[in-house]
Amino acid sequence: MAYNLVILIAVIATTFCTDGKHQNSYLVTVPETIRPGMTLNIGVHLLTKHNLTTVNAQLLNSRNDTIAEGKKLFSPAVYDDLISIQLPSNMVYDRYKININGTGGIVFENYDYLNFQAKSSSVLIQTDKAIYKPGQTILYRALSMKPDLSLIYEPMDVDIYDPKGNKIVQIKGANDPSGVYQGSMVMTSEPILGDWQIKVTQGSETAEKIVTVAEYVLPSFEVSIILPPFALTSDESLPIAVKATYTFGKRVEGTVSIMIKQKYLETAGISREGSIDGESQYIFHMESLRQLFVYIDYQTFEIIAEVTDRLTGQTAKATAEITFYDRPEKIQFSDSLPTHFKPGLVYSGFIKVFKQDDTPLAYPSGNVTLHQSFFVKTKVRQEVVNNSDEPMMQINSSETEEEIKLPPLALVIPKNGIVKFHINPFINVSRISLQAEYKGLLANLSLEKFESPSDTFIQVRLLTCNPKAGKQATFQIQCTALMKKINYLIISKGAILTRGELDFSFQNKSFFRILMLHEYAPSARIVVHFVREDGEIVADAMNFNVDNIFKNEVSLHFDTESAKPGENISLQIRADPGSDVNVLAVDKAVLLLKSGNDVTPKMVEDELRSFDQNFPVFPDEPWLWRWPWSSAGMDVSTIYQDAGLKVLTDALLYKKKQINRATHIASNFPMFLRVADDVPLKAGAISGSSTSRIRQLFPETWLYNRVKTGLDGTAVLNSTCPDTITTWVASAFAVNNKTGLGVAPSAVDLRVFLKFFINLQLPYSVIRGEQVIIQANIFNYFYRDLEVVVSLHNSGGFKNVIVKEDDGINNFKTAYRNNSVEKRTIIVKANDAVAVYFPIMPTELGLVDVMVTASSPLATDVILKKLLVEPEGVPQSYNIAFLVDLTSNHTFEKFANITYPDAVVQGSRRIRISVLGDLIGPTIKGLENLLQMSYGCGEQNMINFAPNVFVSNYLKTVRRLTPDLERKANGFILQGYQRELTYQRQDGSFSAFGDSDISGSTWLTAFAIKSFVQSSPLIFIDPNVVAKAIDWLLRQANESGNFLEPGKVIHTEMQGGSLTGNVNLASYTLITLLEAKHFQFTASNSSNFDEVVRKTIRFLERSVNDLPADKPFQLAIIAYALTLAGSTKAAEVLNRLDQIAIIKDGTKHWEQQIEEDSNRLLWIPPSQQANARNIETTAYVLLSYAFKEDLRNGQLVMNWLISQRNPTGGFSSTQDTIVALQAMTEFAALTYYPGIDVDILILGLKGHKQIFFHNFDVTGSNASVLQTINPPSDTAEMHILAAGIGMVLIEISVFFNVESDVNKRPFFELNVDVVNEVSLNDITVRACFRWIGDREEIGMSVVELGIPSGFGADKASITSLETIKRVEVNNRKVIIYLDKVESKRRCTAVRMNRVNLIAGSSPVPARIFDYYSPEKQVTVFYHSAKLRNSNVCDICPGNCGCGN
């Protein structure tokens, strides 16, 4: 026992001796994160004044290679300075080490490891709008900047992708002398609708901007909801106001419906309806809310208001939220307060006494009472006598904590509601408990002691409110000891920017000022320190925000607040001299649809903050940005750690030993600050004047200009106002080669207005031959009533519909008149508007001119707009694909016929030719669109999961897997993996709906295992998950080597041929087990695994001789299974397949005729995609060739598969797509050839006459770009010539409309009719369907129900069926997804309401198709007899010349 005591004493002594060995000679601070191309500033403070000392800094990689280095000579006069190291721009992810050594007067060496972040710059993208119509031009700008906002004048790459992932635009090395690249892309009149992606890459940094392409009509007004900032449960009522204002600032008259409901709950709410004239007030009584909702305390309610314009019929919505509380006020300690105090120094903090909306109390009564409890620890000594035979006394000591309650403080509440408090902790205080009280409300805060071995503390405070760049800021430093000198660092965006030393002349308190540089913005921290004589480092840090991030200050304003259409205006611009200012002005109505396109100060600030990963953010307390706050930390080590600094020193950097105890910080309620900004719109005084100019310029983007400021820093942009009556919103950002980027703090508005004008209301598009009512709204904002003559001028693209009285009162008939001017005379009251209606029937396709004139004694207005007229019928298409193989023969020639069915709609023909040099490209770009719906059940999820795996492995093999693409693909794979795990059953198997199914599926379990193991090189796959699934799979094996299928797979086509016999399922399962073994996955019992594999191989080998020659699928799948197994029988099966192969035109494939496909089409297109079974069969053979590296046969098969691909990169069905993609990617990896140089000439012929030609050049630089051209629609034959080296895919896509289905015998029965015609404005359409194929049911299917012209569908009204899994309404269709369709007839119905005035509606197409085999479909046309026979008097009585 005595021996143990000696050791204990020795350990204690050793500890004290070690603490005393600090040499106290140097203190080096290094930012913990490095970035390529940036300057790394290292703070060096030599603590002893010896002779000249050279300090060297080296940055080393994981191989100890020197990446960058720097050095500086220090002397007794210069002992605190920065060493700057310029980091190379080509740094990559690695483990980097900073090595510091001193030679000469002070000798030392130390190192530490640093974090690496690739981001060293930011790319910003601006588009002129966030949403576009087909045929419009996307305008975009891009720039790259450093964290100091200086521009990077290096080339950028620009890629633009359509919603299917096809790369439409590729620009390499885009550059501009100003640093801002400006580009554009003109869309075709029929682009793919959806989200397009603009991707800009500069160096290693990439930015993306998403813009939407949609068919839309601009909103003419906006709706807003005005609420109290919060509500009390004790209130008797809740007042709600709804405002509706045109984009030109005038009030909207119409109807309003408003509903209040509890947020996040699907329960019904309380609704009100009424009229609105600019603004409408509603009162909801609290009693009615309490009756409907059980709990309203601290609950958030959503208010939804929908306004319908009386004049135009347009609707617009707004939503708002309000939360109910039981008290109007709240109290809380600021979340930003330090959780540690420093004894001997004043602890300052804030208590917030706010209203529930985080605004100050209007009239605070009483004070805040602050209760303080100090806790002091004391040690208690205890002596314990050992009762054993050996006399021994044991000494124990323990700590007790004594609470000292100080008198409460009464704190006055200032006007801003932020109560400052100060407390003075004693030296021996270990913990402090604070409680703030206001009118019974409590808030609590617990503080721990900041630890220092010597109890020496320093504290820095910022005394300047809202420090601004370019201005001085005052700081205060206090210390519990007398200070001689203080050193400080200023860090911003993760870099040390400034260092300094302050002479304190042995004081413990002093003030100093620092000039705030623009580089400090938007946020910075100051770290102050000194070193005691015993070597202890004493430090503190303060975080603060710096306003005015831009050196280059930009402003703009119009020379007037309001102007007339066609009037000349000036935009006054100010920026630094010589700046290039990029101006943008868009219609406010566009921003109401979608925003997010512009470069804003907030966007730039967020980018700058992203460089500082250690800077705290308090999103729930935005008011804190006005206040500095201390850096968090319990000791000096965490001070530096929270500042993002690594410290290398031989002094004492104290770090408290961690104790597993949580600091308790409690407060009453979470705090959310919202700044009220309710500024009413003020209309300017506008004088009217007569005009007869034609208003025909209605751009959605007006200004998109670049101007340069002069020596005085100003510029003027002169322009002419467009013809739209609206408010234009203008913004600007500027770049300067000295002061960098600057962004105008806010946008400016210009109202373009007339006192008398026409608003021509046109639908987005109409159908040729229908009667369309053109609505012209005449606005009169003069102060007197006006008689107005309104005229519609016929352009020749339509016929005027004339209403004539026919034999009696109120009995009318319609007639048609060409090239006439129709007139109406009306009275428009002062400050009012009247709608005038002109019925027409479009006769020409495309854009048709519609011109309306309104004449009055005081003013005249003329407006010209274009109406899009589309063909009737249902759209159809087919593709003709060619693989141009110039790897051996260097010339290519091919002819392709373009034919149409007899029932083609006149004028609907359209042809598109596309060329791509990346054979796997369509698949890569279309991964997200191979299927429209990807997670309805376990099967569909795997369809989305597996192709990502194949393509990623291919790109990895050919070294084209970029970090960006790898990140995205792995994200999709990981999501698919996680989702698929939800379909794994308790027994380890997989099924369509997991444990809700009766049993797992052998086939789906094998498919899941196969996909999981193939993805294991890309993401982490839990071996236990796979082992559990394999165990279940092995239990389905029988002694003969075959497998049972106990489960049901609702998507039977997905299994391809694998259920046509025992051989197929055994082959597929064997493939899965062999691939699992290849990727080192096995069962929990590996010997059982190997035994089942051996039995299955023997079973398949025995089955080879029994396989019929007319079943190529069985031969193909067993050939691949035996090839993987290394069986000698594989060659025998492949030889049999060669005997029945179809070799033609450089291609090779296999066919198995399916009887049900014969005689189905009334018209056969010149190119038909093979059925799914034949594609899957051929793909399995290609997998065997790829495994054997049989390039000669494999290339022939590859040629055929490529020619069968659809435009999105997929195939006919789903399982054929998956197997084919695996085969193609594996074979393409073997034959990948990066060099390509092909010239293509395409000639269009009509008869023997050439009517079109176009050249395509495909090289390695543009091989992945989809090049397209639209030849004349009457082209009858294409002559294709190519020369060069490489492979190119050419696709001719033919589009047209038909008046009837081309299927002779359908796969489905579909009946659609109108079952409830409440009126001509309100109908219900019913669709009844059933499967009439050769099985009892078909799996996932889709019903597309066309919407009659002039109507919109009520999605919520669709009749519920248990088989309906998803419903969408878009592009004039209701799309209903069904998980299956049975042979039993099922019906669903949807209600439709009129949204446009159109009479004589054409028949509407509806179709149902197999989700996985879309060629299995039927299309029918339906119509309402009332709608079909309706005329303008039926839908527009009294307004179109019908009656009074």
From TrEMBL:
- Pfam family for this entry, one: A2M
The Alpha-2-macroglobulin domain covers 701-792
Q: Where is the Alpha-2-macroglobulin bait region domain?
A: 458-593
Q: Which InterPro entries match?
A: A-macroglobulin_rcpt-bd, A-macroglobulin_rcpt-bd_sf, A2M/Complement_sys, A2M_N_BRD, A2M_TED, Alpha-macroglob_thiol-ester_cl, Alpha-macroglobulin_TED, Ig-like_fold
SUPFAM superfamilies given in the database record:
Alpha-macroglobulin receptor domain, Terpenoid cyclases/Protein prenyltransferases
Kinase: present as a keyword of the record? no
Q: Which UniProt keywords apply?
A: Disulfide bond, Glycoprotein, Signal, Thioester bond
Q: Does the keyword Amino-acid biosynthesis apply?
A: no
Q: Name the CDD domains for this protein.
A: A2M_2
Give the signal sequence positions. Answer: 1-17
Alpha-macroglobulin receptor-binding domain: from which residue to which, for each copy?
1338-1422
What is stated as this protein's family in its record? Belongs to the protease inhibitor I39 (alpha-2-macroglobulin) family.
- Protein name, entry field: CD109 antigen
